[in-house]
Amino acid sequence: MAVFTPVSLDEIGTLLDDFALPKASAIEEVAAGTENSTFFVTLESPAPNGEETLVLTLFEQGEAEDLPFVIALLDRLDAQGLPVPGPLHDPQGEALHTLKGRPALLFPRLPGEHPNTPALDFCQQAADYLARQHQATADFADKDFPYPRPNARDLNWLEQTHEQVLPFLSMGLKDMMQGEITRYREVFDRIGPLPQAALHGDLFRDNTLFRSLPSGRRLTGVIDFYNGCVGERLFDLAILINDWCVEDDGQLDQKRYDTMLAAYQAICPFSPAEREAWPWMLRMTALRYWLSRLLVVHVEPQAHQRIAKDPEVYRRILHHHIRHFGY
Ligand SMILES: Nc1ncnc2c1ncn2[C@@H]1O[C@H](COP(=O)(O)OP(=O)(O)OP(=O)(O)O)[C@@H](O)[C@H]1O
Ligand SMILES: N[C@@H](CCO)C(=O)O
């Protein structure tokens, strides 16, 4: 289940006219994805930039006010030559339109497949990409940057939200969650500010595309920037590593971990504060997903029609990090 708002060929025709694009010959609902309605749109003839298939996304989660940030971020990364779907702009320069009462964006369809097994060359390229994104967007954290979007899933959010899931946890897990959050506050207040940039905010394997080319397997797409925000670079790197380097039983794959840390730090070396914060950030982002998944399962299952992912996976990852990195 991924399309919450169906769209017909006639309905998309109006939108394509607004972008001065050729008509659509086919529209296909995309089955993956859990938050927005996504379609592949085949054009009758190639668009002026050569695209023959576009992606149409209708935003279902009421985040329209955040889309100018996402558009600015994708425009920047696209201009830097990073493998992201730069949103299409109409002849007036506007990317954001409305279709069926929903905010709508059109993107090029990037080639490639989501990687199931995170082979080392995939890990290296994903971490290299993330460092390049952070390097290209340090100015997004400037106070007067025109599109502010603070991290909505940071420590403040953990502190404010976690009580909602406590009734659904055993005594032991309740203590663990509360104890962890208290410790994060102590540690991060003591360490002080960390370098910031524009974050992807959710760089899981299923938000990347890879393709086999004559030159080898290449990262051809990074997608789903809707958790994009300004925040601490380490927060993004820890999300990446927790998904790419940890098995579902919570065990860390040391080779993948070393590969990703080395690839990231080749471009964005850790500051002393980041070195100290790193194991805590791995724990905090594991707890961030344990909590967000618990919220979807227990607190807000109907509110957003969202498809629940297993919170236990991230509970196990957090347990691993606590054992592995200690206090
Ligand atoms: N530009 C693109 N090029 C190729 N495929 C794309 C593109 N954008 C989206 N897709 C495909 O559509 C699927 C859903 O897109 P997306 O991840 O943005 O949706 P979502 O509902 O926000 O999902 P989730 O938050 O669960 O990852 C992706 O998994 C991918 O297969
Ligand atoms: N990547 C998220 C879902 C999309 O926000 C998760 O795995 O919980």
Reconstruct the topology from this structure:
Elements: H1 9-18, E1 24-29, E2 37-43, E3 53-58, H2 67-79, E4 97-99, E5 102-108, H3 120-136, H4 155-161, H5 171-191, E6 196-199, E7 208-213, E8 216-222, E9 229-232, H6 233-244, H7 254-265, H8 272-299, H9 311-325
Antiparallel strand pairs: 1-2, 2-3, 3-5, 4-5, 6-9, 7-8
Adenosine-5'-triphosphate is lined by residues 30, 32-36, 38, 55, 85, 107, 109-110, 206-207, 221, 223-224, 226.
Describe this structure in words.
Keywords: Amino-acid biosynthesis, ATP-binding, Kinase, Nucleotide-binding, Threonine biosynthesis, Transferase. It catalyses: L-homoserine + ATP = O-phospho-L-homoserine + ADP + H(+). Belongs to the pseudomonas-type ThrB family. Its EC number is 2.7.1.39. With 327 residues, this protein is of the alpha+beta class. The protein has nine helices and nine strands. It has helices at residues 9-18, 67-79, 120-136, 155-161, 171-191, 233-244, 254-265, 272-299, 311-325, and strands at residues 24-29, 37-43, 53-58, 97-99, 102-108, 196-199, 208-213, 216-222, 229-232. The strands form three sheets. The chain has a five-stranded antiparallel sheet, with helices on one face. It has a two-stranded antiparallel sheet with strand order 6-9. It has a two-stranded antiparallel ribbon with strand order 7-8. α8 (272-299) packs antiparallel against α9. The radius of gyration is 20 Å and the shape is globular. 38% of the residues are buried. Residues 202, 204, 289, 292-293, 309 line the site of L-homoserine.
